[in-house]
Amino acid sequence: MSNIFRELLKKVGSGSHTSESLTRAEAAAAMKMMLLGEATPAQIGAFLIAHRIKRPTGEELAGMLDAYEELGPKLQPINTNKKPVIVLGIPYDGRTRTAPINIITALLLASAGQPVIMHGGDRYPTKYGLPLIEIWQGLGVDWTTLSLGQTQQVFEQTGIGFVYTPQHFPLTQALWQYRDQLGKRPPLATMELIWCPYAGDAHIIAGFVHPPTETMFQVALGLRGTTKYTFVKGLEGSCDLPRDRTAIIGLSSSKTQELARLHLVPREYGFTTKNVPLGTTEELIKDMHSVMAGEPSELMQTALWNGGFYLWHSGICPDIQAGVDQARELFSSGVVAAKLQELIW
């Protein structure tokens, strides 16, 4: 197998003038050989850095996703009243500068009848930022203790699921040491943003930083037959809408292959142009509880801005302002806090 992998490595690692992109099948084979340890450590490290330098294509990302599809876990379909389940693609290496709001958004959406799946692991390179799993633990929800079957039960009962990759997809763990040693995100980090660990009808919402990533996303998902997706130029590459600038959002369209484009200006909806900085985890958890108690704060403004958009985008509210109003009501009435309590076991 290492001889087969060497040929794939030669294609992507031959330099700027002679390197070639992999086909979808080749990318899938390379991803499988790395996950299964059939490539040598030297080959894996060389491939990851060479592929980063070359830059991935949408076809290669599709192949990598094919390997994840074959080897990885999936939560099974649930009754959603014909709503696609939202799968949030958020960088695995966490946050270091701005306070994340996506877990509050997930609780809000589930409270309004929109199921949500998140996925991720522990503190990972290259940022080693605050990951989703630690925020959930701070809120009293420890996904790390659940088998995939138990997570499925929680998902069915509450409308929220979390695929914890160290437990549910342990094959990925061997690759994290390479990220640390290389000091750079490999293309795997881009692919993870559009991974869908759900076997039913899904709407993938992925954050991004660099505009060319949108094109890669769109090509990869198109090749895999995914038609429902949203790309958000969010805070630190997440799905969180910023308040300090116009939110740039790309939406899939059933009528054209081009992305529909939204430019949302926070101040037009009454929000100040200020992101909430990330302090200690303890401070963040306290502020999140304050939001779920309906108390005014800067983080509440971020929660309302994101909640308004996502409630509208999910088809729950007729427009963003109605979404903001409903988000405020769901927080102040204690409905979101009650959803969190459903998840505490």
TrEMBL record:
Q: Which Pfam families match?
A: Glycos_trans_3N (PF02885), Glycos_transf_3 (PF00591)
Q: Which UniProt keywords apply?
A: Amino-acid biosynthesis, Aromatic amino acid biosynthesis, Glycosyltransferase, Transferase
* Gene3D superfamilies membership: Nucleoside phosphorylase/phosphoribosyltransferase catalytic domain, Transferase, Pyrimidine Nucleoside Phosphorylase, Chain C
Q: Under the GO molecular function aspect, what terms does this record hold? A: anthranilate phosphoribosyltransferase activity
Residue limits of the Glycosyl transferase family 3 N-terminal domain? 6-70
- Thylakoid as a keyword of this entry, yes or no, is no
A GO biological process this protein is involved in?
L-tryptophan biosynthetic process
Q: Where is the Glycosyl transferase family domain?
A: 100-334
User: Which InterPro entries does this one have?
Assistant: Anthranilate_Pribosyl_Tfrase (IPR005940), Glycosyl_Trfase_fam3 (IPR000312), Glycosyl_Trfase_fam3_N_dom (IPR017459), Glycosyl_Trfase_fam3_N_dom_sf (IPR036320), Nuc_phospho_transferase (IPR035902)
The organism's superkingdom is given as Bacteria
Q: Which GO terms describe its cellular component?
A: cytosol
What is the name of the protein in this document? Anthranilate phosphoribosyltransferase family protein
**Per the UniProt entry, what species is this protein from, by scientific name?**
Anabaena sphaerica FACHB-251
Q: What is the lineage of its organism?
A: Bacteria, Bacillati, Cyanobacteriota, Cyanophyceae, Nostocales
